[in-house]
Amino acid sequence: MSPRRKFDATLITVDVHLAPETMHHALRNDAQAGLNAMPKDIPPKWFYDHYGSQLFDEITKVAEYYPTRCERSILMTQAATIAEVTKADTLIELGSGTSDKTTVLLDALRSEGTLRRFMPFDVSEQTLRAAAALISTNYPGTEVHAVVGDFEQHLHTLPVGGKRLIAFLGGTIGNLEPAKRATFLQDVANQLQLGDHFLLGTDLVKAPERLIAAYDDQAGITALFNKNLLSVLNRELDADFDHSDFTHVAAWVPERQWIEMRLEARRDLEVKVVALNQVVRFAQGEQMRTEISAKFRRDRVESELADAGLTMTHWWTDPDGDFAVSLSTPST
């Protein structure tokens, strides 16, 4: 049976490649590996249930979290150029979430007269459906073809045709460790055809105190976001994590040039995870890594793109050089 679900008489289509049972199986595997690792390590993709996506949307609005504001300012300044250069009729956004800042690109492509199709791609079906409905309402006549999937597994399912602009924004590329990042960029390059472009947002290296503040805001929203992972494990794997047993930690790792988010046990404790038929033990002060966020310089971005078979054609930053957006094409 095809995963395609047409749920509206308009131009909205949703392809579901992450059915609930598939996601459950993947989470079980990741939790089994991560909770038994030393140190413990759970991939950040599991933050993003519907509530997690809402919390991240709130994070982007706090004073300390500069990446979203900086990236939006770059897009607002350069969107017309991006639309003129790419002449894209299809915008594909990987890790789209609520697709809030994507409207800057959609507006520019519509003004250019090329926009025909928008394809948001995300792991949360609920968030994706809500975003697809809103975009369809605000951009009448534009086909909205949403894809529920994992960009580390399902890029090959992206429909082809037309001139496509694949956007991977928000600095999300930094959540991947170097080997996985190389594989992902190679997968993107393999998807691009002549006339397609890749738009990438990357957070840049800066003072560690600013980076730590961005991942540990005073309002505590990032802490809630981090601990939401425990709620996901409780709900999906019948675990009994208690949020009050853990402290949110953000740390700069200079030798890796990345920020790590962790959850630190406040005391010695045991956590039952029924779906894994396991009791997981934490020592007081033990930390479980929940996210990395690598920071970049231009030469590193350009080099990693080149290694994947992509040629950077444009590089834009905000006036303070905090964040960068680059445009690339397949190398000839």
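Second entry:
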Amino acid sequence: MDLFTHVVFAYLLSFVIWGPGNPQYIAAGALAGGLPDADALLFPLARRFPILQHHGITHSILGVTGIALVGSFLLPFLPYFPHSSTLLYFVAMEIGGLSHVFLDGFTHFAVSPFLPFSWRELRLDADVAINIIMLTLTSITLITLSVERGTVPFSLWVETAWILTTIYGGYLLMRGIARWRAGLVRTREGYSGVAPTTLPWVWTLVDRQDLPDRYTIRYRPYHFGETTPAPDRQMGVTKIGPVVGPVQSPQEALDRTYAAAMEKNRWLSIRSHFGEAVARGDVFDVVWYMVEGSRSGRTFGVRGTIDRATGEMHLRSGFFRPPPGTMS
């Protein structure tokens, strides 16, 4: 998840644990909730030491504990942090840091909580990493708590914090339940994976096979609580190298453009993707797009044309609206 959501979530979690009478521990927890993402500053070293990469050692239990241990001794020397129990500062920062690890593992971006002892990943696929709904809720929370602090009766500020905490908790609970239900449908219908979208009630059931010479995929949207399942979509392509000459069919257009499209958009190549080709005059219109993630009507992909007589391709990468009916 985004940095601000991590900080706000850790703040509200700390508020629940420590209560409004211990603002120093609430602030310590919120600070620790954002610190794991400081690994972005280690990017130059991550190329040489992979354990320092983003979602590396700082997103592990050991890394969080190390940060909490150092922070518990340094906090009293920072502004707005009074001298208090070093042990409680440590506990507050440990909880805040672990909340960061949990939230990242809650999404489709994996973390390895047992580094450096194991690269085993935690990935619950219950939310997307960057979610406009969560960003909006986080913005409202930050603005509301900032405006109310010191300008309204303290009791009202506390009630607001509890209401926002309930909203966050309800959102995560809904995501978790919907992911569980989607998993049951996945098993029943024989799909191999479940991918979240920006909408907590819409998921994508996916079954794909990516071999050196062939790519196949079957997918459909799953709506939480659905009574009439949507039909699935299926596609298979043969991965071939550059070929010149006439293109005889939409299927051949897909086969010919596959490698070029994946090269044009590397992000597309590592996610579940789908392609369509339609004849239009002297060319085939071709579109390749991600089937996971957004339900805003647009998605990442590659689109363009391939000449029916010569096989010449003109492809461009972008963020666009896929063909009607494909992302419903």
